[in-house]
Amino acid sequence: MIGANPASCNAKDAASKEGSIKNNPRYIDQELEMQMDGIDNPRKRGMLVQRFTGDSTPYSFPVTPVRLVKEWPKDKPPFEDRDFERQDENDDGSFYAVPRLVYHIDEPAVASLTQYYRNNISAGSDILDICSSWVSHYPLEFPKTMKRISATGMNPLELKFNDQLTDFEGRNLNKDPKLPYKDNSFDVVTCVVSIDYLNKPIQILKEVHRVLRPGGKVIISQSNRCFSTKAVRMWLTMNDRQHLDLINGYLQYAGGFEPRKAFDISATMPDNSYRDPMFIIEAVKETV
């Protein structure tokens, strides 16, 4: 049509997108077939799982800035080796060997993260999800609207079940904190409720910085649940606000990021009942 009004076209596109999101189901039931690698028994096990889409829920999703108050020393991290010790120092590979096809945060927390991703990750992005699993909490449309979605995680079988991924690599970042990607490969890196398990978080965030393109960002999300035997010692002595300051310190010592921003994105329940909190720290890679 000659002489079309761009604004009206954009409005139609936005309305169409909003309509399609409203039509998304709240849950998706899937039957997955599991066969453990390295086991002689050829029998396979079927499992019925339910995925939260983050859409068509009764929740609302406020985004509230959180002030980061702790000032970290500028020259050297004040951490000691014991700060990163864990109650269970046995091989993480054994702990995560059996796939856990469950959610580690509740549906409101999942939905708030999904909506945050939808509003803060641009279409056409190359995304990396570190410490990933059978779900990445991305919106349903992301496999179509993003250029690439890659992931690393402890359990390759869980990653195989993650149908939002373009590609994945099994990787124990506590043993080998190097990411298997070239420099400047991604626009966004995400990490969902997992940074508390990393015993070399600064090294890993240096790697995140390396694989991000200039102007790209890392989105680290955190709630208040964890496997307490696998979380690092100092994490267990802190509250939610202190966790945000700690992550901010990790990013400071990793270097090369703009000043970080933190948000409370916890969902609001219709009856004000309990829900898992959800917090975000976002850091943009410097362009100079």
List the helices and strands and how they pair.
Layout: H1 6-22, E1 27-34, E2 45-52, E3 64-66, H2 92-95, H3 107-120, E4 126-130, H4 142-145, E5 148-153, H5 156-160, E6 167-170, E7 186-192, H6 201-211, E8 212-222, H7 240-254, E9 261-264, E10 279-284
Parallel strand pairs: 4-5, 4-7, 5-6, 7-8
Antiparallel strand pairs: 1-2, 3-9, 8-10, 9-10
Helix pairs in contact: 6-7
Core attributes:
disordered N terminus, 24% helix, globular, alpha/beta, eight-stranded mixed β-sheet, two-stranded antiparallel sheet, 288 residues
Explained architecture:
The structure is a single chain. The chain has 288 residues and is of the alpha/beta class. Helix content is 24%, strand content 22%. It contains seven helices and ten strands. It has an eight-stranded mixed sheet with strand order 3-9-10-8-7-4-5-6. Helix 6 (201-211) crosses helix 7 (240-254). 35% of the residues are buried.
In short:
The protein has 288 residues and is α/β, with parallel strands linked by helices.
* SSE ordering: HEEEHHEHEHEEHEHEE
**Which radius of gyration do the C-alpha atoms yield?**
20 Å
- Give the strand tally: 10
Termini Cα gap = 43 Å
Tally of helical runs: 7
Low-confidence stretches: 1-9
Oligomeric organization of the protein chains: single chain
For the biggest β-sheet, the strand order reads: 3-9-10-8-7-4-5-6
Proportion of residues in extended strands = 15-25%
Shape: globular
Mean pLDDT: 90
Strand count, sense and barrel status of the largest sheet are: 8 strands, mixed
Global structural class: alpha/beta
Helical fraction equals 10-25%
